[in-house]
Design a protein that fits this description.
Blueprint: E1 2-10, H1 13-42, H2 49-59, H3 73-90, E2 106-109, E3 116-119, E4 124-129, E5 133-138, E6 146-155, E7 158-166, E8 179-184, E9 190-192, E10 197-198, H4 205-225, H5 231-266, E11 269-273, H6 277-280, H7 300-324, E12 327-331, E13 356-358, E14 365-367, H8 368-384, H9 391-397
Parallel strand pairs: 8-11, 11-12
Antiparallel strand pairs: 1-5, 1-7, 2-6, 3-4, 4-5, 6-7, 8-9, 9-10, 13-14
Helix pairs in contact: 1-3, 2-3, 4-5, 5-7
The structure holds zinc ion.
Zinc ion (ZN) binds at residues 340, 342-343, 345, 359, 361-362, 364.
Length: 405
Amino acid sequence: MLTGRRYLLAFTPEQAAYAETVGAICRTVWNTGLEQRREYRRRGAFISYVEQARQVAEAKRDPDCGWLADAPSHTLQQTLRDLEQACKTHGTWKVRWRSKARTAPSFRFPDPDQIAVRRVSRRWGEVRLPKFGPVRFRWTRPLGGAIRNATVSRDGGRWYISFCVEDGLAEAAPNGKPPIGVDRGVAVAIARSDGGLDDRAFVTPGEAARLRRLQQRLSRSLRVHGRNRGSNRRDEVRAEIGRLNARIRHRRADFVTQEAVRLVRDHGLVIVERLRIKDMTASAKGTVEQPGRNVRQKAGLNRAILSKGWGGFLLKLEHAARYHGAKVEKVNPAYTSQTCHACKHVAPESRESQAVFRCVACGHQDHADVNAAKNILAAGLAVTGRGDLAVGRSAKRQPPERHAA
Ligand SMILES: [Zn+2]
């Protein structure tokens, strides 16, 4: 199965500067390619990846566009391929520009024949990449398979390389363990239908205060100096904010990975809320249907971060499930937080607070997120047509759907 391995790169200053250059070129190619695609669409026409790649190859020979040739050519082609994929998935008008301030540089080497990795010592590995030459990276874990491609990206001031690796493992047979429902909680990070609550502070109070101060300093500097002056200091503040955010992001990634693995190791079927498009455009107000579900007072920042990270959690979960013989079922999250699990009465008033659910019809009381997780479990079992404890049996009886490796 395909899996990812990420390592911290130790670029020389020259390599780091070159990586910035390649990132900038790829960003320009992305933006230009997107503009061209929109231009075509305005005329009711369409331009394909093949044609765009041909034009880039041609432009490289033009003296005015010679800078294009500074980047490894495969990274440019890959950028155009990613652009085509993004346009197909989201529509040409929804795909975003990559601005220097908002988008961290990232580029991919798609050809495994151009990527050579060797271990040089207990703690260091070396990867040879086109035009970069040998690059050292921290060998924190074995590669564990054949490399398919490699992506270089900057994250909070540090450069990383992510290898996509075929680990040669076959998908695990159904593990026959019981099902579970999981809710993205309001009061805690993750609530399970068996009553379990898992939480972790992703942001320490000190970090939250520091982030607030930095944000204030940034906006003050913009106000006082305008856009052009004082930009050096602003870049420093931006970099500091980036470093803090990266640290928080890594902590969250660790948490969701551990959480995902634990769930699929102990359960044959994990039922979760489907990702809502709304979540991606992080609204803090919640909806009429689920009042305050995205609103956080106490857990504020933590909740906002996990809410955004739900998509990442689902990806981790599905990835881990294939290794542990579990299935992931996604259900519509509507009303799961205001339905009484005992009597099925639906009322927003039953949700007394972020943590407490008390049914206005039957008086049933539960942790609000656990009640939601139980509803999610019930909804998932209804969708899959599996009775409560029959999951192990039916999973064994049915041939697994994607058993081929
Ligand atoms: Zn009730």
